[in-house]
Amino acid sequence: MSFLTRSPLSLDALLGEVSSPERGGTCAFLGTVRNGPEEHGVTAIEYSAYDEMADAELGRILSEVRERWPQARAGVRHRIGKIPAGEASIAIVVAAPHRAQAFEACRYVIEEIKRRVPVWKRELRLDGTAVWVDPSGQPTTSPPVPTPSPFSRLAEREGHV
């Protein structure tokens, strides 16, 4: 299964993947392309990825959720390609027996994605310029390289990636 898509994101599909009667707390997160005062006229963001590595790392993050919160289930989709301002680029849904677990696990997923997953973004601006930005949103001269987790390094050494 690929966690990357070029299509608009569907919360309903992700909810269907994680929901069950024994999971009473559900947390959804949408990351949306924004154009605020600090973004200098962003019209869209172009996302690119090392697809196989990104899918593998996203799968590892979801496995870590199952290890840390055994009764929780998480789903994620990340768009790649050109996404206009105002549209969602990432969707995360976590269902757990209680809301605290759902919120904690959802936060864990987005923070680990930002830190580890090889997805790069280039802001396309109203004046015609394009700027690579790092996961914190700061301009950079080239696509940044996420920090691999200890789990991904172990998987690479053991030949699982």
Structure commentary:
With 161 residues, the protein is an alpha+beta fold. It has one domain: Aldehyde Oxidoreductase, domain 3 (Alpha-Beta Complex), CATH 3.90.1170.40. The chain contains four helices and nine strands; from the N terminus they run βαββαβββαβββα. The strands form two sheets. Strands 5-3-7-8-9 form a five-stranded antiparallel sheet. Helix 2 packs antiparallel against helix 3. It is elongated and about 50 Å long. The model has no long low-confidence stretch (mean pLDDT 89).
What count of domains describes the coordinates? 1
Bin the strand percentage: 25-35%
Structural class label:
alpha+beta
Computed over alpha carbons, the radius of gyration is 16 Å
Number of strands: 9
Number of contiguous helices: 4
User: Shape from CA axes?
Assistant: elongated
**What is the H-and-E element order?**
EHEEHEEEHEEEH
Poorly predicted spans: none
How are the strands of the largest sheet arranged?
5-3-7-8-9
Largest sheet: 5 strands, antiparallel
Helix proportion: 25-40%
According to CATH, the homologous superfamily is: Molybdopterin biosynthesis MoaE subunit
CATH topology: Aldehyde Oxidoreductase, domain 3
Q: CATH architecture, please?
A: Alpha-Beta Complex
> Kindly state the mean pLDDT as a whole number?
89
End-to-end gap? 15 Å
Assigned CATH class? Alpha Beta
